[in-house]
Design goal:
Length: 453
């Protein structure tokens, strides 16, 4: 039996109306045509892999939900007509939908459309509860194998228990969850006792908030606002040469561009620091978890347009990753409220609890150089691949509640680097034109130009 993890649980609550469902989506842009029968085979393979899962409610209160294998899946969504290149992102947005639901077993969808000027665009979308970015990559690579036995070779969930065995497993899990929550409550109570010999906790200075430009909120514009989404495609060789020239890596250049774009939009001023959340995969080769991502946070200075050196961001990132690795190796439990206790609380209770802001400017996810068996389908290599995660249906009020600016992903093939950026600030990023202008200006600072999808 495979129990859902804590992150899985948070994403499940979003499907229940606590926030908005989060979907992960990859887009492949092929300059050559990929045949429908090859995509049907890929869909069939995906339906026998780790994406084919359904969340099942426990039979005992306080026990965690469990994953079971799903025998159903969406058919290949193949667009009957060709679409224009300018319509790709709108087509991709329409591949998201509430019918992608982990509780029905229909937690993912493969789609494709021929392009009017030649080639094919392919989309793979999944609920974040079903798969994080690393899980989607792993599932796609396994399903995309040319081996005739690829379906049999894919990793699968542990077999589900039934009847009395399932009830017994739920009882055991409920007991462990209660024990964990009770232990946390006891430790928290002891820690709060006034013991003279106990040293006072170390006070942590609060972060200084960046100085943002003054903007007026126009409630009349809220009804039509959706999170702007752009994909900037840059030549890979040029991107990497620029990163090296200024003492950085692809990752530090990526973070620098995002920081500059936030500054350009007025979300911070020169001399401020902004915090970025950097996802780090904790996934092993045989991992069957849906979500195996940890977050590392870094504070990056906002500098003027003449500052091009990337070595400081590189050093800051390296130090943060080194500290994170040491914490992981030491096996230290994450601080904060008991995860077991959070999972026990009913949706009605959690919905009433104000959600804290984490203070980050946004998320910067670097998926790195994509392997050939991810960027190639049926012998056709994608020119570019885009990845993103998005709150489906999020409105302006929700975006303001997060207090975040940009969430972005970078993917690299042998030909292209794509920066996929969502904005969650309705005033400073009212539409895709404003977002693309700020991203383009940030790229220009380092002498880079981009083709926007």
């Amino acid at each position: 039996m495979t129990r859902i993890g804590f992150a899985d649980h948070l994403f499940l609550r979003m499907h229940h109306g606590i926030g908005y469902p989060v979907y992960n989506q990859f887009l492949w842009w092929f300059d050559e045509s990929v045949q429908r029968e090859q995509l049907e085979k890929l869909r069939d393979n995906l339906s026998d892999g780790l994406l084919a899962r359904r969340v099942c409610a426990p039979s005992v209160p306080t026990a965690r939900e469990r994953w079971v294998n799903s025998s159903v899946s969406h058919p290949l969504d193949f667009h009957p007509d060709s679409i224009e290149s300018s319509e790709v992102l709108a087509w991709a947005d329409c591949r998201l939908g509430s019918d992608i639901d982990p509780e029905t077993g229909l937690g993912w969808r493969l789609a494709a459309a021929p392009l009017a000027n030649g080639g094919t665009v392919v989309s793979l979308t999944a609920s974040h509860m079903v798969a994080d970015g690393g899980a989607l990559v792993a599932a796609f690579r396994s399903a995309n194998s040319n081996s005739a036995n690829s379906r049999a070779e894919q990793p699968r969930l542990n077999p589900a228990e039934h009847g009395l065995a399932a009830i017994g497993a739920d009882v055991n899990d409920a007991v462990e969850q209660l024990r964990s929550a009770a232990g946390w409550l006891l430790n928290s109570a002891v820690a709060a006792l006034p013991i003279p010999t106990r040293s006072a906790p170390t006070l942590v200075s609060p972060r200084v908030s960046p100085r943002r430009s003054e903007v007026a909120i126009d409630p009349t514009a809220d009804s039509g606002w959706t999170s702007p989404h752009v994909v900037a495609e840059v030549d890979a060789a040029t991107w990497n040469a620029v990163a090296k020239k200024w003492g950085g890596t692809s990752n530090s250049l990526f973070i620098a561009v995002l920081t500059a774009a936030s500054g350009n939009a007025g979300r911070a001023s020169i001399g401020d620091t902004v915090q970025w959340s950097l996802p780090v995969s904790d996934r092993a080769d045989t991992d069957i978890r849906s979500n195996a991502t940890k977050i590392v946070k870094i504070d990056v200075p906002v500098t003027d347009a003449t500052a091009l050196d990337l070595s400081q961001i590189r050093s800051i990132s390296k130090a943060a990753f080194t500290a994170f690795a040491a914490t992981q190796a030491a096996g230290r439990a994450p601080a904060g409220i008991s995860q077991a206790l959070v999972q026990m609380l009913p949706d009605a209770v959690v919905a009433r609890v104000p959600q804290p802001r984490d203070g980050a400017e946004g998320l910067a996810s670097n998926l790195g150089v994509l392997p050939d068996d991810f960027s190639t389908v049926a012998g056709v290599r994608a020119r570019a691949v885009s990845g993103r995660a998005t709150f489906f249906g999020a409105n302006a009020e929700f975006a303001r509640s997060l207090d975040g600016g940009l969430t972005a992903w970078v993917c690299e093939t042998d030909a292209s680097v794509t920066l996929t950026v969502h904005a969650m600030d309705p005033e400073r990023f009212p539409d895709s034109r404003a977002l693309s202008d700020h991203v383009a200006a940030a790229l220009t600072r380092w002498g880079l130009s981009a083709h926007f999808w």
